[in-house]
Amino acid sequence: MTDSTVTSSAHARSADRQSAQTPLLALLVIVMAQLMVVLDATIVTTALPRIQQALDFSGTGLQWAVTGYSITFGGLMLLGGRAGDLLGRKRVFIAGLLLFSVASLVGGLAQTSETLIATRAVQGAGAAMIAPTALALISTTFAPGPQLNRAMGVYAAASGSGAAVGVLVGGLLTTYASWRWVMFVNVPIGLITALLAPRVLPETPRNRGRFDLPGAVTGTLGVAALVYGLTSAATDQNGVNHWGDTRVLVSLVAAAALLAAFVVVELRSAQPLLPIRILLHCTRGGTYLALLCLVTGASGVFFFMTLFLQNVLGYTPIQSGLAFLPYAVLTVGVSEVVSRIVGRTGPRVLMLAGGVLTFIGTLWYAQIDESSTYVNGILGPMVLTAVGFGVIFVPMTLTGTSDVDPEDAGVAASLLNTSQQIGIAIGLATLGSVVWSVVANSVRNQVAAAGAAAPTKAMTDHALTVGFQRGFIVAAGITVLAIVSILALVRSPSANAGEDGSTQGSCPGFHLPGHHRARQGTES
């Protein structure tokens, strides 16, 4: 064997190792960013009482520390996805990480409530650049089939467990460090990820086209108005209903008008921000609708179970965070298993199974009472819903981003993330209205029946429990809508659909003049 042969063989082995390692490193970077974005939606929640004391927030102003993030995150999602398609996904992904990191640093240093709210809104803008480009990078970096399925499994595990991890990390940081560290913790994560990204993420081409400015304005403002209106509408903990408030009505009417205008603009645009054909694909459209319903129910369950643990059972923030640890672990483990079998079973079967498990677990939560313990009242339904989410998220992520042209991958990914953000807003608004109305009525009835001047702790605990029970029942009903959406709209592609890129998910009869493009192997 000659020296040149040995050298060539060594170079080949080195190239093979590099090609094998690069996708793994790329996935690590993407998942770190996604976990940071999802975690940040809940990490601040456990720190709110400390934040209120430190920055002298009013009771109504405190919600903006959470709402400010949600509005810009949800409102700018479509724009972030399209920016990645047109400017290059890696470029937009890194810019989002840097923006998120800077906002986190300034937020941690905030001395006024206004500064914190502003930085939370900027964090949301950074997240709107990160989330859709992260998912699009996965769908365009990994080869369809087992490699893509497993990458989506890791991504889904991070997305599904992030909320639970956020509660735990927020409790630990608030208790043992300072509320400011729920902001500071993002800085090293964001900067390290931004430094690694240029080295491990593949270059993505800039696609031809221009920004659809009318679509961007109407779509962004429409989604932001919808999230704001729904977030502001919920009945508060005193039983006061805000659905009739002027700001809520104006926001919801404006959202309806802006989103209607957005649809008209997109139908007429030669280069739309959101090609309507993406929504009219049955499997993708059904996935977005099912995810919206699923998250609507789950967001309320997560929020109110946290309140039950702390307000009724007397858990500390750290204890309540640890209580959700089985949820996070199971979601990660089940997602990994599902990513290995989805190519054989097909996504529809798994989505239905996950939806049914989530429904049963959510309904089981409604059996709690004041005497419930963690083991006999909470752990069982938590395990079931964690398994359900672990089963459903991987196939949903695959079907929500499948069968699209590469230049539309960012938009498809942004629709998945937008469905989640709007679902959270709807869930907290609708379920919050149900829960707090029941709680207020129960307290009044108990006080009147006992002839007491004020409610006792036992009365309050009973009222909260009854309200949470009702909320869980409504959440289970909303989960049924997700199952119906899957049954009615999600098609059953062949088991090998993920390997050859073909699907059978198109809705017959939906063809938009000027917007339909016949493509082999894509929607018809």
From TrEMBL:
One of its GO terms (cellular component) is plasma membrane. Pfam families: MFS_1. Residues 26-494 form the Major facilitator superfamily (MFS) profile domain. It comes from the Bacteria. Signal peptide: none annotated. Residues 497-524 are annotated as: Disordered. It is found in: Cell membrane. Keywords: Cell membrane, Membrane, Transmembrane, Transmembrane helix, Transport. The chain crosses the membrane at residues 24-49, 61-80, 92-110, 122-142, 154-173, 179-201, 213-234, 246-267, 288-309, 321-342, 349-366, 378-401, 422-439, 471-490. GO terms for molecular function: transmembrane transporter activity. It is a multi-pass membrane protein. The keyword Transport applies. InterPro entries: MFS, MFS_dom, MFS_trans_sf. PROSITE patterns: MFS. Residues 513-524 have a biased composition (Basic residues). Its main location: membrane. This is MFS transporter.
